[in-house]
Amino acid sequence: MSDATVHAATVLVIDDETQIRRLLRVCLEANGYRVEEAATGQDGIAQAAQRHPDVVILDLGLPDLDGVAVLDRLREWSRVPVVVLSVRDREEDKIAALDHGADDYVTKPFRTGELLARLRVALRHAQPAPEMTVFRNDELEVDLAARVVRLKGREVKLTATEYSLLRLLVQHAGKVLTHRQILREVWGPNAVAQTHYLRVYIAHLREKLETEPARPQLILTEPGVGYRLLEME
Amino acid sequence: MDDVRPNPDTLLEALQQQNSKAARGRLKVFFGLAPGVGKTYAMLEAARRELAAGRDVVIGYVETHGRKETVALTAGLPAIPRRRAEYRGVPFTEMDLDAVLGRRPQLALVDELAHTNVPGSRHPKRYQDVLELLAAGVDVFTTLNVQHLESCAEAVHQITGVPIRETLPDSVLDDAEFELVDLPPEELRARLLAGKVYVPDSARAAQDHFFRAGNLAALRELALRVAAEHVGQDVLAYRQAHHIADPWKSGQRLLVAVSPSPTSAALVRWTRRLAGELQAPWMAVYVELPRPLSAEEQSRLARHLALARELGAQVIPTTDDDVVRGLLRIAREQNATQLVVGKPVGWRALDLLRGGSLLNRLIRESGLIDVHAVRAEAEPSAPLPRTKLPPLARADTRGYAIALGVVASITGLNAVLQHWLGYQSLALVYLLSVVVLGMFAGRGPTLAAATLTALLWNFLFVSPQFTFWISGSTDLMLFCTYFVVALAMGHLAARLRAQQGAERSREQRATTLYLLTRELAQASDFADLLAIVLREVGKATQAKLALLLPDDTGAGTLTPYFASTWSLPEKEQSVAAWALRHRQPAGRGTDTLPSSEGLHLPLVAGEHALGVISLRFRDATPQTPDQRDLLDAFVRQIALVVDRQRLREAEQQSKLVAESERLSKTLLNSISHEMRTPIAAITSAASSLGDRGSAAPRELQQAMVGEIQEAAGRLNRLVGNLLNMTRLEAGHVQARLDWCDVADLIQVTLKETAKELAQHPVTVELAPGLPLVRMDFVLMQQALGNLLLNAALHAPEGTQVRVGAVVEDRTLKLSVADTGPGLSADALPRIFDKFYRAASAPTGGTGLGLSIVKGFVEAQGGRVSAENQAGGGALFTLRLPLSEPPPVLAEESP
Predict the structure, then answer these.
(1) What interface predicted TM-score (ipTM) does this complex get?
(2) Which residue range forms the structural domain that includes residue B399?
(3) How remote is the C-alpha of B745 from its chain's centroid?
(4) What is the predicted pLDDT for the residue at B506?
C-alpha cells in the first residue's frame, strides 16, 4: 500500500527515553514520516490534541502517567491509531493495552522493520477505506459479500462459526486480536472465558486453510494474547 | 614430703580465685562473741571511713535498735528504703535486694548475716541475698555472732544450753575478711545491765542463762579461735599466691560417711571443722543400701546431705549392698586419706553374723586410710510438720493385718491337721507360712508372725496344751530352734524382698532415663524435640509443665513454648528468669524463693543456660531425694540434647549462609561474564563499522551488523532469564491456566528459537489426537524454549533435536531430546539447581535456564526430569497433569 506515504503521515512519539525518540525520528523520517515528540504523558495528550497526528507510538512506562491511562484519556475524544512500544513483555500488559484501545503492541527491543509494518497496518485500518468486499492473500480469497472462501481457486466449505471467525480475522487483517475480543465478537459476551472454543476453531481453520497446518503461515498465534491474520502487502 | 615446688594445681586454683575475686565483691564480717559487743557500731564507723575515702556506700539494712549513738552514725550514709512484706498479717521489713542491686553501690552495709528472711522473699536466708550482692560485684560489710556459724552452733548449744536456730554455712565466710569486735565479758555484762544490749522480748528468759560470765568467756574463746583460723587461712592464701613455699600441707582428703542416722549431722560438722583446720578438701558419702528408707529417714538423709553441701563438702551418693565396701570403694576412688565415721553405740548381735561390727571391718579393710570414729550426739529431730501418715506406715498396717490373717488361718488348718499329724509337723506348717509371708509382707509383720506362731504352737499344740509350759527338754529344744529359725527365715525373706524392691525402683529409674534418651534421639527437629521433652517429663513427674526459652535478643526474656501445659503467672516467670540468669534451680524445694508455686530448673549446658523447665506438682508433699535425683538427671540429659540440637541448627544456618554467599558469588561471576561478552561484541562491531564507515566492504558491514544483532539478542535473553528468576524467587509467578493447543505451543516455540536452532535439524513427533491441555501458554513456551536453547548449546552442530508430545497416564509428556554428549553422572541430580553449570558445559549460559524451566513447570503443577537416553544424548521431559477435557462443542455441518 502506498497511500500512507503519499502525503507524509505524522507520527507522534510519546516516550521519555531521549535515545529511543532520537532513533525513532531518524528511522521514521528516513521512511517518509513526519515526527513529533513528547517526553511525558501530559505533553503527549496535549500534542495529540494540537497536532492531530495520523498515528501515535506510545511507551507504557512514562514518568507522569501510566501508558494505559494515556490511552484512556486519548480514547475519550480520539480514534487515532495507537501502537504501543514498551519493554513490558508480559501478556497481561499486552492484553490490558489492547483492551484499552491500542491498535497494536510491539515490545522493546524491536526490529525497525516490524515496527514500520505495524504502523502501516494501523494507519490503513484508521482510514475510511472504501468498503472492502473481497480479501485476497496469496492463495486465499474471501468474498465477504458472497460469503465464499476459496483456496487456490477451490471453494472451501466452512461451518457458520468458522466463517464468522475467519471474517473477523480478515476484517482486522494484520492486527492482533485478543482472545476476549474474538470470543465476544464470535460467540457473544457470555463466552469471553471459553478459550477452548477458540483453540478448537482456530485448529479447524488451520486444517482447512493452511498448506502446512503444523507450521501455520496465515493465522499466527500471539502467545498468551490472541491471534493475528497475516496480511500480504 | 618436703615438697618445695608449688603444686601446679594449687597455683592454678589460686590464680582462678584471684580472678574471680576481681569480679566478685569482697565480704567483710564484723565478728563478735555475742549480741551487744558493738558490731553494728564498728561496721558503721568503718563504713564512714570508706565514705570519706570517696567510695559509694549505701545502707542495705542496718538495725540500730533505736540506740542514739548508732543512729547518729547512720546519718550521712544513704539508705536504700526497706521492702515491706506481710506474713500472716504481721508486717515485716526486709532489705530490698533488687533495689540495692539496681543502685549498684561499691559497698553495701547489711546487718545480721544470719537473719532468716520473712517467707515469700527471694531467698530464705539473708546470707543468700549477700551472696547475690557479692556475685554482682558489690562489696558487703556485715555483722555476725559466733553462735550463728554452722560449725560452732553445736558447741554454743553445749556451752549455753540454748538451741541455735539461725545458722549459716561456714563456706559463706571462706573468702571473707574478718574483723573481730571484742569486748571482755565483764564489760559486756555491764552494758547488758545498763540496758545497752537489745534483747527481743521472747528471749528474755534465756537472756540470763546465755549471758552468764562463764558462758561469755567460753564464747569469747570460740570467737577468737574462729577469727584466728580465718587469719591463718588468709596467710596461707597469700603464701600460695606469692609462691612462698613453706608449710605445704600433705594432700589430705577427708571423707565422712553420712546416713539417715540422727547422729550424722554432728558428724558432718565435726568433719568440716577438721577439714578447715587441715585445709583439706572433704567429701560426704552416702551408701544407698538395698533397703527402702522410711519417709522420715529420707527427709533426714536429705537434710544431712544438704548440710554437707552447705558446709562445702562434695557430696557423693553411691549404691552398694554393703556399707563398708561402698565407703571404701569411694574413698579409694577419691584418694581419701582420712575417713570419718560415727562411733557405734550399744551392741549389735547381728554384727557378729556379718563378720564383726562395721567399725571393726572398716578399720581392718581400710588399709592406708586413717579412720576417725567420732562420738556424735543425736540431734533432736527437727520440728518438721508431719502432715499425714507416711505411706510406708500405712503399708505396714496392711502387712500386719495380712500376717494376722495368715497366722489365724494356718492355726485353723493346724487344728484340723493335728488329728493326722504330730505336733512337730505342725511346727513345719507354721514355718512354711512364715517363710511365704516374708516374701510379700514387710520385715515387721514377718517377725511378728514368727513370734506369734511360735507362741501359738507352744500354747495350742505342744503338750501340756493350752499352757505356755513346756515339759520335755526335747520340746523346749524344738521350741527354741523353731523360734530362732522362724525369726531368721522371716528376716532373710523380708530382706530379699526389700532388695528386689530397691532393684526394681533403680531399674525403673534407669529405664525411664533410657526411654527419655531414646525418645529424644528420635526427634527430627527442634520443635519435635521440645514436644518430646514436655511429654516425657510430664509423664515421669505427673506435674504441670512449662518450657521457657530465652528470646533471640539475648535480653534474657523468657517465652513459654506454646505446647506448655502450665501457663506461668507473672511472679513465677520472674522466678524462672532468676533460675536462667543464675543457672541455678529456684522455687519450691530449693534455697531460692522456696515459697513459689513451681520448681524451676535451668537447662544448663556448659556455660549456657538454654532455657528453663518449670514444674508445678499436683500435691504439696516435697519430692523425695530419689525423685529429685531422677528429675535432675532428666534435666541434665535434656540440656545436653537441646544443646546438641541447637548447635546442629546453628551449623546448618552457617552452612546456609555459606551456600548463599557461594551463590551470590557465582551469580556475580556469571552475570558479569554473560553481560560483558555481548556488550564487548556490540562495542567492537559498532566501532569497526564507525571507523570504516561506508567505505567498508558490504560483506564486512553485514557481518558486523549480524554480530550486533546476535549480541543484543543474547543480552535480551539474559535479562529475560534474570527477570524470570527474580519473579520465581519472589513468588510472583502465578500460572494462568487456560486451554491450550499443544501443537500450537510447539510450533510457536520453534519459531521463536528458529535462529538459535538453525544449525540443529528439529523433528517434531506429535501423538495423533492430542487433547487441549490446561497450561499457561507463555510459561510453557518459555520453558520449552529454554530446553531447546539448552539442546542447541550442548549438542554439537548438525545433530538432531527431537521434540515430542504424547499422553501417558493422564499426563501430557513433552520431551526434548538431543544426540549430544549427554549429562554426566554428577550433573544429573543438580541439573535443575539455580546457577548450576556442569563442569563440561561450553561457555555461555548462566545456569539459570533449566532452573527457570523447573520453576515455570512446577508453577503449573507439572514436573520436570532429565536423563540420558539409551542411544546417547540428553532427554528432558516436562509432564503436565491432564484435567477433565473441556465441554465438547456441538459441531455444525458446513
Answers:
(1) 0.83
(2) 392-500
(3) 63
(4) 74
